[in-house]
Write a structure and sequence with these properties.
The complex is a heterodimer of chains A (311) and B (313).
Chain A (H helix, E strand, L loop, with lengths): L23 H14 L1 H29 L9 H9 L4 H6 L1 H31 L1 H9 L1 H5 L6 H34 L4 H6 L1 H27 L3 H25 L10 H12 L11 H24 L5
Helix pairs in contact in A: 1-8, 2-5, 2-8, 5-8, 5-10, 6-10, 6-11, 8-10, 10-11, 10-12, 10-13, 12-13
Chain B lengths: L3 E12 L2 E12 L2 E5 L6 H8 L7 E6 L8 H4 L2 E4 L11 H11 L4 H14 L15 H13 L5 E5 L7 H16 L3 E6 L2 H7 L2 E6 L2 E7 H7 L5 E7 L2 H8 L5 E8 L4 E7 L2 H15 L3 E6 L4 H12 L1
Parallel strand pairs in B: 3-7, 3-8, 5-6, 6-7
Antiparallel strand pairs in B: 1-2, 1-4, 8-9, 10-12, 10-13, 11-12
Classes of the chains: A mainly alpha (311), B alpha/beta (313).
Chain lengths: 311, 313
């Protein structure tokens, strides 16, 4: 080839590139924008936790108010009945105030565990397509033709799933805690059970990291969003069933560590110091199992995104 | 600053047992270059190697003087339009271009204005706020082109950019490439539409089965193909008189008649086209054969392509 056959003038690129900047922000923003445009899944997946949070907030407020010997405004005679139902009359509640705070804490943990299942649905629904659809449509070609590193890309995708996890898992718990704190006299809940805040953050954060990692790993293995979604649910259901089966057959409850959900329940029981531990197996094994699941998931994600170049 | 756009030395890329490109050594100067080849020739692989989406299995490739694979500094200088229909359906055209500009490191306001400008250049400004899921194939293609040119890169790499475009859009897109060239942007694009390549550039790279068949100016490549005689078609009132004279010329290999009663066409194949073109006016005057037209049928890219593909098959 001869360079002189071109009439064009050569215009050297004269831009500047901020090489240090993390570029995962635009990925997160675009990912959320895309997710928020589909209204029906948002309503279906967010409505139950929102309703549950409102109802639970009211219950927690009622318990805290009854513990002080008050009937919450607007509850009237029903307040007395509720007080009875929650463990005794107003007098006995007032007399055993600390006990009631423990009950509030246990209610919060129970609520937390139930909303975690919703957060699993949220993360699976909004995260399943993140890598699978990029692979299917070839969108990674657009990403990696930009000054974007693989770390930026994965961090962006992970942040999207994790954000839905936080919304579904941590946020409702924090709302309930806030209600409990506000309803208890003289910040007594904060003083007596204040550790539940950081425990909620720790547990919610760990749960979000575990589930987000598993969802992304399955997504990186799947060629379509629907396959990834089915894969995520299959993983959680089969791991739960197999862990229960092995634990019963081999009469060793440590096998429950094969299931991320069972690990979560065991960790929550230990972390929040619940009085009714029915899963008396080793908590260290549960934490180790979670750590291993995250490690294996990220090994798969990194391996699969390295393979994204071969399409 | 590198003098060449692309310098590939013994580049090979394999997908397991499948050969993407093999032992490819080519130097591409700055400017507009067409990458040609049948399906499976290795065009897309070569373009992905250029933009650093793929790492060569062996050999070296340099684009604008830099190694492209995992090189964010180089990625800021080039724009890539892949063949795949990789669009986020729920975003609007502007949001799509803006998002990719943000990934390139532009601030929100700059990304927005550059996004709008790019959509204007591909004539999609009026639908910039419409969601991509309602776009036709041609509009989607133009959106992809817009994101490739929006950050005013030094090099634009386009994989089959004319696919799916109607004739008007094709014309406008070719005009856009021409303008980009005039502005000093280098353009490398792959296509099957040979005459459109010729309209845009004389500089081509031909690939077949992952190997380089030829590279350079179309006319130059044709000259190198001297095992194929040049073919000329001559329309004449009395072609037989003409044929009698032409067969005795040096280099002429075959003379064929075709056409109707009134206008006969003479097809002449010669290895010495200079001799034919020099002698033809004299012969025409002598024989009074009444030459209506003279055309060369195999000077063009299509003929070159056919010859090369035939030879490579």
């Amino acid at each position: 080839m001869k360079a002189e056959m071109h009439g064009e003038t050569w215009r050297p690129w004269s831009g500047t590139l901020d090489g240090q900047r993390l570029r995962c922000g635009p990925i997160v923003r675009a990912g959320l924008r895309i997710a928020l445009r589909k209204k029906l899944p948002l309503v279906l997946l967010f409505l139950p936790p929102v309703v549950a949070t409102i109802i639970f907030s009211f219950v927690v407020y009622t318990v805290a108010a009854l513990a002080q010997g008050m009937v919450p405004a607007g509850l009237g005679a029903a307040g007395g009945a509720m007080g009875q139902a929650l463990g005794g009359g107003q007098n006995s509640l007032a007399g055993d105030f600390v006990q009631q705070l423990v009950r509030v804490r246990e209610m919060i943990v129970g609520f937390h565990l139930s909303t975690d299942l919703f957060s699993l649905l949220l993360m699976a629904w909004f995260g399943a397509g993140l890598l699978a659809e990029d692979r299917r449509s070839g969108a990674h070609l657009l990403y990696f033709a930009r000054p974007l590193t693989r770390t930026d890309y994965l961090l962006g995708k992970f942040s999207i799933v994790a954000l839905f996890g936080v919304l579904g898992s941590m946020l409702p718990g924090l709302v309930i805690i806030t209600v409990a704190v506000a309803a208890s006299p003289d910040w007594s809940f904060l003083q007596q059970e204040g550790s539940v805040i950081w425990k909620t953050l720790l547990f919610g954060g760990a749960w979000t990291i575990v589930v987000s990692s598993i969802v992304l790993a399955v997504s990186s293995l799947a060629s379509r969003r629907s396959y990834a979604l089915a894969g995520v649910f299959a993983f959680f259901m089969f791991s739960g069933a197999i862990s229960q089966l092995l634990a019963r057959l081999l009469k060793d409850r440590d096998w429950l560590a094969l299931s991320p959900v069972q690990c979560g329940i065991r960790i929550a029981e230990a972390l929040f110091d619940l009085k009714m531990p029915v899963r008396d197996w080793n908590t260290t094994i549960a934490w180790t199992s979670w750590a291993l699941m995250v490690g294996v998931s990220w090994a798969i994600i990194v391996w699969r995104t390295r393979r994204l170049e071969v399409v | 600053m590198s003098e060449h756009l692309v310098q590939a030395t013994d580049v090979a890329r394999f997908y397991g047992d499948v050969v993407g490109v093999c032992d490819l050594s080519v130097t591409i100067p700055r400017g507009t270059v067409g990458l040609l080849g049948p399906n499976g020739a290795g065009k897309s692989t070569f373009l992905k190697l250029l933009v650093g989406e793929l790492k060569p299995s062996r050999g070296q490739i340099e684009v604008l003087g830099e190694t492209p694979f995992s090189n964010p500094r180089l990625h800021a200088r080039l724009g890539f339009c892949p063949q795949q229909d990789a669009l986020w359906e729920e975003l609007t055209a502007l949001e799509f271009v803006e998002f990719l500009l943000r990934l390139s490191g532009f601030e929100a306001a700059t990304a927005r204005s550059k996004g709008l400008q790019a959509l204007e250049r591909v004539q999609l400004a009026d639908v910039a706020h419409r969601r991509l899921k309602g776009f036709s194939k041609g509009m989607r293609q133009r959106t992809r082109i817009a994101q490739a040119i929006a950050h005013q890169p030094e090099l634009v790499v386009l994989d089959e950019p004319l696919t799916g475009l109607d004739p008007l859009a094709r014309h406008a897109t070719l005009e856009l490439f021409r303008n980009l060239g005039n502005e000093g942007t280098s353009v490398v694009f792959s296509t099957h539409v040979l005459h459109e390549v010729e309209a845009l550039t004389q500089n081509v790279v031909l690939l077949h089965r992952g190997r380089l068949l030829a590279g350079g100016e179309i006319a130059g490549i044709r000259t190198l193909l001297d095992r194929h005689p040049r073919r000329y078609t001559i329309q004449a009132r009395d072609p037989r008189l003409l044929a009698r004279e032409l067969v005795s010329l040096d280099g002429v290999e075959t003379v064929k008649f075709s056409g109707s009663k009134d206008t006969s066409v003479l097809t002449v194949e010669t290895r010495l086209p200079d001799v034919l073109l020099r002698e033809l006016p004299g012969i025409a005057a002598r024989t009074r054969a009444g030459i209506g037209s003279l055309e060369s049928r195999d000077e063009g890219l299509e003929a070159v392509f056919d010859y090369l593909m035939g030879g490579a098959a």
